[in-house]
Amino acid sequence: MGKHLYKQGLRRCYGCKEILPLNDDTFCKYTSTKFKYICKSCNKIERKQRNLKLRFIIFQRDNFTCQYCGRKAPNVELQLNHIYPKSRGGLNKKENYKTACKECNIGKSDMILTEFL
User: Fold this and answer.
1) Exposed / middle / buried, residue 82 (Cβ in 10 Å: 0-12, 13-18, 19+)
2) With a threshold of 0.85, does the pTM exceed it?
3) Residues contacting 108, CB < 8 A, separation 6+
4) Could you tell me which residues come within 8 angstroms of residue 111 by beta carbon, excluding any fewer than 6 positions away?
5) Widest pairwise Cα distance in the chain
């Protein structure tokens, strides 16, 4: 079946199992597994799930507490905060995230606060 799809210019999505035409508009160029094609809609869902999982891991690591003012959930809205802001070359890695309440995150803006490192 796979060879027949290939000859017809089609691929089966690894996520939703739908058979789709192989072109740049349908499938992602980079997939996490070799020789498996993931359509763009499945990739968005997968990415969102990874981001939610990462948020929870960071919040859990920081004990659901703002690392700047010490307030805890559910009394405040918690957000992920980049220690080194993306606008200044910071990366999207676990080590570069801190839990911050909404007020501290907005107040910090894109500053690098060295006393909290």
Assistant:
1) buried
2) no
3) 68, 81, 100
4) 85
5) 61
37 strand-pairing partners: 13
Q: CB of 83 within 8 A of CB of 58?
A: no
Q: What CATH class has 62-117?
A: mainly alpha
Q: Are strands 19-21 and 78-82 parallel, antiparallel or unpaired?
A: unpaired
Per-residue pLDDT of the chain (117 residues; tens, 9 = 90+): 455 766 677 877 777 777 777 776 776 655 545 567 778 888 777 778 888 888 899 999 999 999 989 999 888 999 988 888 888 887 878 888 899 999 988 887 777 766 554
Domain map of the chain by residue range?
1-61, 62-117
pLDDT of residue 41: 81
Identify residue 109 by its one-letter amino acid code. S
Cα(30)–Cα(37) distance, integer angstroms: 9
Amino acid at 58: I
Q: Are 26 and 19 in contact (CB under 8 A)?
A: no
- Give the separation between CA 65 and CA 75, rounded to whole angstroms: 10
